[in-house]
Amino acid sequence: MAPFTVLTELIDRPSPGKHDENWMLDLELMHHYLSHTRYILTEHDNVDGLRIWQEEMPKVAFSSHYCMHALLGFSALHKATLQPSQARVLRTCAVDHLDKALVLYREHGQTSTAENANAKFVFTWLVALFAYAIPPSVPPIDAITELFLLVKGIDTVLGETWF
C-alpha cells in the first residue's frame, strides 16, 4: 500500500528498509533502559545518581547518535539477562548497536570540543560497561589486557574533555 500523501506530498520520504524493521525494538530498549537498566547503574537510594542515569544520559544520547546506539546496546544486553527466551536476538541487537556506535564515534568523535565532551564521556563509559557485560571470547589474560586498554582510553577521553 502506498503511503498517504495528500498532506505530505512535499516531504521527501526515505525508502523503506531495515531501519524501519528495528524501530519498535529500539523503542522497547529505550523503555527498558528507563524502566529497569538505569537502576542497575547506581544505588537505588541515590536520588542524584538515579536522576543522572534517568534524565541526563538519555539527553546526551538524544544529541549523539553514537551515544544512543551505545545506550540501546547496553539496554539490550541487560534485557537479554532478564529474558532468556529472547537472549539471542537481544545480544545480536546489542552487538549491532555497538558496531554502529563505534563506526559513528570514529567518524564524528575524534576531536574533543566543549560541545561533544559529555557525549564522549558517556560513550566511553557505556563502552566500558558493555565490555564488562559481555563474556570474553578470548583467553582471560587477553580479556584483562583489552579491559586495561579500554580503561586507559577512558582516561584519555577524560583528560581531553574534563581536565
Automatic annotation (TrEMBL):
InterPro entries cross-referenced by the UniProt entry: Sterol_Uptake_Regulator (IPR053157)
The protein's name: Transcription factor domain-containing protein
GO molecular function, one term: DNA-binding transcription activator activity, RNA polymerase II-specific
Domain of life: Eukaryota
Organism encoding this protein: Hortaea werneckii (Black yeast)
